[in-house]
Design a protein that fits this description.
single chain; mainly alpha; 0% strand; elongated
């Protein structure tokens, strides 16, 4: 018979103090992107872009109505002018609501992406995690700071960026992030220009300028929407399943 003191201990038995042993995980946890926030953001961005296109179309119709009013023999009715004004107003409200809702959804996605980027790569980023949200509300600073946050997330999420000991200053920045940011800022600057035009007068030339501004804004918004959807998808794909080293 074997000596019981020399046999292997029963690993499943409860220790003397009554504390059962816990099996530690053999692998690191994996990153999980905020796919839900990305899907919602993408849908809202596309919807807002569609509203911008409808607003440009309505600006074109309003231009021709006003042009008819100042013609030698006007044929437009007061009811047509009122309906055109109502449609323009509702489209403006719809666009503002779309911008606000898509902005909230994008911030939720960006916060998760920023957190994941810090957990899969320990390289210092230029702005702390809280700036993923705060950067959008700093006057003048919001013309550049949000782009810095997303650019560093893009760098840290690259598959060729080392998880430990990397220097993001040496990692190439994604040009797509910079192009998207230029289009995004230009879209809203053109929108502000169009709003200021409407406060001047109600001449035919003003409505023509508003149409061109709205058409340019819709085009820029469409390109910006496609790029931001691509950026979110690319970042999520790069982060998905990566080891969380901290």
């Amino acid at each position: 018979m074997s000596n019981p003191e020399l046999t292997d201990p029963d690993l499943t038995a409860t220790p003397a103090l009554g504390i059962r042993a816990i099996q530690l995980p053999t692998e690191l946890p994996r990153a999980r992107p905020a796919r839900g926030a990305r899907f919602v953001t993408s849908a809202l961005v596309l919807a807002t872009t569609a509203v911008a296109g409808l607003a440009a179309w309505q600006a074109w119709r309003s231009y021709w109505l006003v042009r008819d009013v100042f013609s030698a023999v006007p044929t437009v009715t007061e009811d047509q002018l009122r309906q055109a004004n109502d449609r323009s107003t509702w489209l403006s409200y719809g666009w503002l609501a779309g911008v606000a809702l898509s902005g909230v959804a994008f911030l939720m996605w960006l916060w998760r992406a920023r957190v994941n980027s810090a957990r899969i790569c320990d390289a210092p980023q230029r702005l702390r995690i809280r700036w993923a949200v705060l950067s959008w509300f700093i006057p003048l600073g919001n013309l550049w700071l949000p782009q810095m946050v997303l650019a560093d997330v893009w760098r840290a999420s690259r598959p060729d960026t080392p998880a430990r000991g990397a220097d993001l200053r040496t990692v190439p920045a994604g040009k797509v992030v910079g192009i998207w940011w230029v289009l995004f800022v230009a879209t809203h600057l053109v929108d502000l220009f169009a709003v200021n035009l409407l406060t001047r007068d109600s001449s035919v030339q003003t409505f023509e300028n508003v149409f061109f501004a709205d058409a340019a804004s819709a085009g820029l918004a469409g390109l910006s929407a496609l790029l931001v959807i691509y950026i979110m998808w690319r970042v999520d794909r790069r982060q998905d399943g990566r080891d969380l080293i901290r």
